Amino acid sequence: MKPTTAQQVNTLLYYLQTKQTPPFKILFWENLQKIDFDYSANSLQQLSRFFAAMAKRHIQLPQLLTSQSGQAFVITLAAYIADYLAKTTGQTIAWYDYDRMLAQLARQNKYPMQSQLPADFYSSLTARIGHKLYCQPLKLLPDLLQGKDVLPQFIAQMTQTLYQQSQVNLLQSPEAVCQGYLAKVKTGKLQDAAIAFSTYLAAVNFDHSRDSLVQIDDALSAIQQAFGFTQADYLDFLQDASHQAFCYLLGFYIGVTSSRLANAPVRWVSFAQMYDNLGEEFAECLEHSFVLLFEDCYRTPMLVVTNRLFGLASNFPTTAAEFADILQQQNAGHLAVYPYQDAVSATADLPAHWTSAMQVAGALVASVLSRLSQGEPILPCVYQAHSSDNTGGELTAFNPSNIKLLSPSDTDLDTATATDTDTDTLIDSLYQTLHQNPQLAPIIVGCFDSYTNLPMGRTEGVVIEIWVYDNPRLQLQLVLPYQSANDWHSLKIYPLVSHQNGAQTALTSEQIAALTTHFYQALLSTPSTQNTAVKTLWQDAYVNQLDSWVLPPKDQRIQQQNAQLVTHFDFALLPILDNQTNVNMAAFDYTSIDWRGFDLAKHILQASHHEQSYLQVYASDNLIKDELYRQIEATEDLYRYGKVVWGVVIKSDAALTEPMSEEERDTPFANHRVSYADILFDPSGQARVEDLQAKASQLMDAIGTVNQPPNAPPDVAFYQLHYQDDTSRVFNLAYPASIAATNYRITTSWIWRRHLPNGMLSNSIVPIIIHTNAYQNKAEQGEIMVLPSQLWDKAYYHYWLSLAYEQFGQDYDLLPYIHWQQKYPQDSTDAATQKRLWPKFKPNQAPSRTPNRASSREQSSAIGLMSDKLENPISATAKQQSTIQQAAIQQKTRQKLADVKPTLQPSTESLTQTAQIPKAPPPSSLSNELTQQLMNDKLRLQTQLSTKDTAKDKKLLVIAIGGVLVLIIMVILVKMMR
After folding, report:
1. Which distant-in-sequence residues (6+ apart) come within 8 Å of 442 by Cβ?
2. What pTM value is reported for the model?
């Protein structure tokens, strides 16, 4: 059998690290043995010097690939570079040859395979580091063999990307957030340098023991002593995202470790969930972001971290070890675990009907697991065992066809499908059957899919109800926990657990253990074809302990198989095409998209509620202060009467060329920086993309060769001054006639990053919306906006993502996040945010579905009149006063941190301080003419944004003058009368 890609790569790495002589030849092996391949920074320096020495000897890639030993040499060093990234960042790594990678992309079904993965040498080996990042280390070799020191920069960039990818999305479910943070320490050590104070945690052995909590306490003490934190530093401390991640990581770890030591079933809940139950008594703060929920109370383990550093609450534990001890005393659980033991028979003397009931339960769960192995949903079902008159009252043999679903539409488990029937109603029906036993069955067994709380947190589980009605009666509830396949592991099945104590079941632990033995035996000895499927699933998925990070047997076997050493090197390398280091993707055919036939108004009118929310843009404080705010006001007209044309980005904000930060992606309705771009376009929409690109290139060449504005034509000098000033804006500016006589226009456009497929400019060609009369060269009609990407042609949408994938190793597609935020709206639902969303869509009106209705201002539209204007931007002084008032209110209204009875939670004093408002930097100097023009533009913008009612002021002035005149006349009349 031909060795796998992973086996061959791991064999090369094994001999490279151990310095043992491999059973096959590797070129320059004696020289490689002088390098310490120990995954240290020094190993990279030695490797760079080795490549520099090869460059001096003019050894190039084609020469190395002529022999088998040279190919082994190339793959070895490329694999070490990728493996170095995985080892130093604590990530897993998987290896793909060209065919496997092509199949992987086909499964993702996102991009055209021909353009996404060219069949060349550099695609011969791909490493997936972590869960999302794909790396092709062979692309580094040409530069390294030319003596270029590109290795440190490559490692730094890829490491930063990996850390960014490993950042946890706080908008996920609380259990998912917990698992995301605990994944950073699943190996026992923290290797994520993006977490603050990671060097202080290097000595902590994260093995969920009490000793590890003591080590965390020591690390927190060292941090407190080194930085001297006080309560006054608390708010500033939390402004740093890495500090918040530090608190979340240790809080989740302390909570899970404490619950495991106390054997207490727990689950994590969010602040929103707690607030829904407790109301305003539950104050919002970092310590309440995620709360550990027990059966009768809740705990806030994150307060242990901040209390240790800042001394927030004197009556709350200041050490993780003390927190765990109190949980052991007050919240110790009675969860019982009954693992599967092969070749063990029950020893306790049990009633015959009890044994039969457990055998029925095992057979029933086997039927359920067979569906789980096929990826099908688990449906609530029930089995009623009956006695036979022909056998003297003994129970009839188990018959799978007698399993009844609780859904009214399905009765056969083998042909059942998921329905829209309320699961809670079905479960209620099951318990009604158990209590009433309408058919007077001696045994009823039911099961359904649910969630169960364990010491490691909440997970999925099959709840099994076993009821025996003949004396001695039996009412037993067991849960078979499992975890669905995810990024870290395949499907896992845990041992049976029982949440019932002895008083509830009247059974001893020995009796329950004997009952579960009969259950396991029946589960794995089910007749018919289910037996093979269930046994295979059990062998692949069953783990014998409740631990989130124990790999299931299937994953362990894959690891062992990949680690097997091979005796020969037989790696298929693709040829180098045209001696190019990076083969670019095929150019997109822009002529395949004709925007002249695109009915923008129709798409807007037919938008659903979620689509309408996506079409809206958010006016932040920074944007309100910018002249680009006029684009916000023009959004309605652009959607109603605009048309779509191709545009070419000439100049853009530097941040637009990089992936969005997690904060900006997850909190779009915040005061982020204003992203802008100068876009060249043809108002008629007839210009070819190639012509626009050529004119953009000519303009860049012209302003790049001009040293002083007086030496250039005025139109070129004007644009050069604008180009050099990041605060300058132009609208409907004519293309410099001194370069070419065209009707093209240039406009500065604010970019709402959510309207790009991945939140960044992966390409310079973008579809934009312009005014239908933009060709008239009127400044007030010069506003443009990027066409929201969900309205793009699908082929170009995926091409855009593939360009990002080629550059960064992933596409950063925003669509999944947008769909999630639409499903679970948070910030966008409050009134203040709604006021800043543009355009305003009419509420309670279904979108029009009439395609041929003419567009006019009188026509009823999905977009309502934008009558609610934003207020005039608040001055810095007003903002500061508002902040001080808000801080004072918070000091009065701040509630206790997680006050429960019985409780560990303290009453903390408010630590809020007045926020400092930074001043905006002064604009760069410009020529007098351009400066005056920009000042006029700003004055005009302030006039447009002003909410001052001048007509009312005039009326008040006239009334005041009239009142004064009347008063004067009355005084004169009084004097005359005297």
Report:
1. 353, 385, 386, 387, 395, 468, 469, 470
2. 0.58
